[in-house]
C-alpha cells in the first residue's frame, strides 16, 4: 500500500511540474529546403510560455510540441526502414526542450527519416 501511495505521489508531482517546464522551450530551427549542398537555408526561433519567436504560428507549434513524446529522438539503430528517398531537405533543431539541451538533425533519406521529419514538420514551414 505504501508503495502505491508513493507511486501516485510521484506521478502527480511529475504531472504538476510539467506545465512549468514548457517555459524551458527555446529552439533554433534551420532548414535547407533544397538540401545542405545548396547552401540556401532559413532559420527560425521558437520559445514557449509565452509563445514567441520568428517561427510562423509559435503558439500552435508549442501546443503540438507539448503533446509529442520525445519529438527529437533519433531513429533507433535497430529500426528497419524502407529505402524510399523523400527528398534532399535537411533541418537542424537545437536549443533547450523541457529542460534538456538538444541537437537534432533531420533528413528525408529513407522511410524512417521521412516519418521522423513528418512528425515535426510544423517546425519546418515552407517559405
How many strand elements? 4
| Major sheet description | 4 strands, antiparallel
In spatial order, strands of the major sheet run 2-1-3-4
Question: Structural class, judged by helices and strands?
Answer: alpha+beta
Discrete helix count: 3
**N-C termini distance:** 57 Å
Residue stretches low in confidence (pLDDT < 50, at least 5 long) are 1-22
The radius of gyration is: 17 Å
The H/E string reads: HEEHEEH
CATH superfamily descriptor:
Subtilisin inhibitor-like
Describe, in plain words, how this protein is organized in 3D.
The protein is built from three helices and four strands; from the N terminus they run αββαββα. With 127 residues, the protein is of the alpha+beta class. The protein has a single domain, classed as Subtilisin inhibitor-like (Subtilisin Inhibitor, 2-Layer Sandwich), CATH 3.30.350. Strand 3 (90-97) and strand 4 (100-107) form a beta hairpin. The radius of gyration is 17 Å and the shape is globular.
How would you summarize the topology of this molecule?
Layout: H1 2-21, E1 26-32, E2 42-47, H2 58-67, E3 90-97, E4 100-107, H3 111-119
What attributes characterize this protein structure?
127 residues, alpha+beta, Subtilisin Inhibitor, 4-stranded antiparallel beta sheet, disordered N terminus
Amino acid at each position: 500500500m505504501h508503495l502505491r501511495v508513493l507511486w501516485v505521489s510521484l506521478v502527480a508531482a511529475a504531472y504538476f511540474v510539467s506545465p512549468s517546464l514548457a517555459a524551458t522551450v527555446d529552439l533554433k530551427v534551420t532548414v535547407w529546403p533544397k538540401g545542405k549542398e545548396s547552401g540556401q537555408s532559413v532559420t527560425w526561433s521558437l520559445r514557449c510560455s509565452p509563445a514567441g519567436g520568428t517561427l510562423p504560428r509559435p503558439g500552435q507549434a508549442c501546443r503540438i510540441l507539448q503533446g509529442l513524446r520525445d519529438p527529437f529522438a533519433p531513429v533507433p539503430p535497430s529500426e528497419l526502414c524502407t529505402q524510399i528517398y523523400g527528398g534532399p531537405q535537411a533541418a537542424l533543431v537545437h536549443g533547450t526542450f523541457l529542460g534538456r539541451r538538444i541537437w537534432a538533425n533531420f533528413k528525408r533519406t529513407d522511410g524512417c527519416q521521412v516519418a521522423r521529419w513528418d512528425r515535426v514538420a510544423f517546425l519546418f514551414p515552407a517559405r
